[in-house]
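Run MFS transporter through structure prediction, thanks.
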Amino acid sequence: MYAPPTRPINARRLFLAGAIGLTLWLGATFLWHVTYRQGISLAVILLLDQDFPALIVGLLLLTLAAPFAEGVGLRLPAPRARIIVPLILLFGLVAWAGHYWLFQNYSISRDEEVARFAAAYMREGLFARPIPAEWEPYRRAIMPEFFSPFGAADYWTAAYLPVNSAIQALFWQLGDPNLAGPTLLIAGLFALWRVALHLFPTRADAVWVTMLLGLSSTQLWVTAMTPYAMTGHFALNMIWLALVLRGGLIGHVSAGTVALLAAGLHQWHFPPIFIAPFILWMLLARRWKAAAFHIIVLAAIVIVWAKLWPGFLVQLLGPPADVRPSAGVADKVGSLFERLGDRWQPLVNLSRFVAWNNILMVPLATLGVFAMRWRSALRGQEIALPLALGCFAGCGLALAQGYGWGFRYAHGFIGPFCLLAGLGWARFRPAAMRPLHLGLAITLVMSAFLVWRTHVFVAPYAASHRMIDASKADVVLVDPRGGLYVTDLVRGRDGVPGRPMVMNLGMLTLDQVDELCHLYVVELFDRAEFRPLGVPLARWNLGRMDALRAHMKAEGCDKPVQPPLPEAIEDAFNASGDVL
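Sure, done. The structure for MFS transporter is below.
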């Protein structure tokens, strides 16, 4: 399909062009978000702590490596199953172990916690968790955000669609919900390999480029350590594409089923953004039946997940309560445009995306765009067209994401980026792999730094959660003032609320606090506990909570959460630094 390149791009020029482009992008990002401070969001905090240093190192190494980039490099074997499959399985194992080592068996964001919360009640065969009568007056302090409005006066239900949590519940039944992400990563990488083999049947080097860019994506395997739905989007997007390229009735019907599942992972609008460019590609190629079928699938996605699912929840749980419903089509579209108006941050978010993926992914994917023969593309003969349109859409909707390792809203397009890079390599590069080897080495250095900084960032929150979870009190009230995103510590154990029942103090009234102090053993968790653990400082205050705390002190209801007592004499010596 792809003949040897007639206009090869020198690797030295490729490296230098990547370094220059990255320099300009980083300069603009720093000026806009740091020098002129267009809002200090969590993304900017993580950019300065993680991505900016990693990108500076990558930029310097890319420049230093440029004079040595051209050359044959190590010879790689044919990308057959006996090589690729064990490699993919190894990265799945790394992702599973990383949840326990890197993230210390802790899910830092509210998004992840809500997904695990839903998995816990699905594991019990429920569609929602009934709120115990004694806790109904405090239900919003216990579940502060990301709850479904349907039947919210009587049930706790995740605001997200159910498929991601259902997959976790399935693996929970099999032994460990944290195997869900790694398994999806394995499935996605396997599908990526099959697509690469289909596109490059005579270019083993291009297949290797595609796969090594995917395997070296720090964003892919670190996100697979978490309950985020984005690993599912990557996997199901790649499976969908592999089935469409397979063709035939079985291929397209199976792809339609996969698309329906993908739309139910957590928010239904993500798969249509990926699929729409391929429908355009089919229309340009005059493949009317295939295009019509996938248009029907898109309509089915809206009907099933934006209409039937909310209707089912209303019938099962009751009408919306506490907050307005947020699953309708008009509401979803309106919310998207509202966020584009006030939360569009392409510079910082795409900087994170570049930092967490292979340093050569974007330069090679750019070559893939230029590899298109535009007349052929307009006749639907160039798969680079839908791949590129999807990547532009995924990156263009660069909304503020909060937490995320890389830019998770573009997570489902990492596969298309890798395929575009393979297309660019096949068109413009001979089978000389040294540039790829150097890119992998640079990416490895960046990945090591990012993994270290991620561990440092997560550790204080994991320690705080363990400290709260070990409390013997009935209720732990979290006063989040003075700490960055401390409110996300309001959660249960393994997705199940229970003793200690953790609540956000700022969402309680004075009468509710009095009632809790009268009926239960109450402990406080505030800056006196979480600041020594290393939680980043956040300078904010709330006068109403000052009054609550003063009242609690006057009533003798301000006992702090205490670390658990050592179980053995050796633990006591370790905790005291051997000064006893």
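Residues 434-469 form the longest helix (36 residues).
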